[in-house]
Amino acid sequence: MWKSAVVVLAGAVLSACAMDSPTQPGPLVLPVFENGAGQSPNANGGNFGTPLSAAEEVMPAGVVNNSNARGNAIFHLNAEGTELSYKLIVANISNVFQAHIHRAAAGVNGGIVVWLYPSTATTPGPTGGGRIDGVIAEGVITSANLVGSLAGQPLSALLDLLSTAGVYVNVHTNDGVAPTNTGPGDFPGGELRGQVEHRGHRN
To answer: pLDDT tens digits for 4-19?
Structure first.
């Protein structure tokens, strides 16, 4: 179940056209995991999340990420510890074609361990898709969705990394026109990033 909560994404909201002037955003009302009657026993202990910003990205030498995009990734563990529901939320961004959980500490780039966007399937979306906002992906992660260095391991291996800031969420953009890394909407290595934090006690 879901209820609405206010999530404020800081930074200027750019219009779909890069030539338009930025405007200030108001509060963005988004569905988050309900915390009330009927919630699993892990409601206050099986939650993980991270704000996403350009400032967290580790860019190639000589590339400047001046994106004003923002986002959030929210994760909730079920009572049995076998399924991790997620929502990926963004604002002020264009041309998202992939998003993942990557395994590495803050300030270091690492390999993909779970796909989040367009879904948990290991297939990227189209490039050059234009402006996108709000909840752009949601689903359920199980051990079957683990890839890379976590492939074949139980979901608890991912939970351990989530609990110790050992993974980050990365949102990748691509305008589909060469060359790459030309500015916001065209950072295939990642435009938004955030180190996932454990929010509460996991039962």
So the answer is: 333 444 343 333 333 3
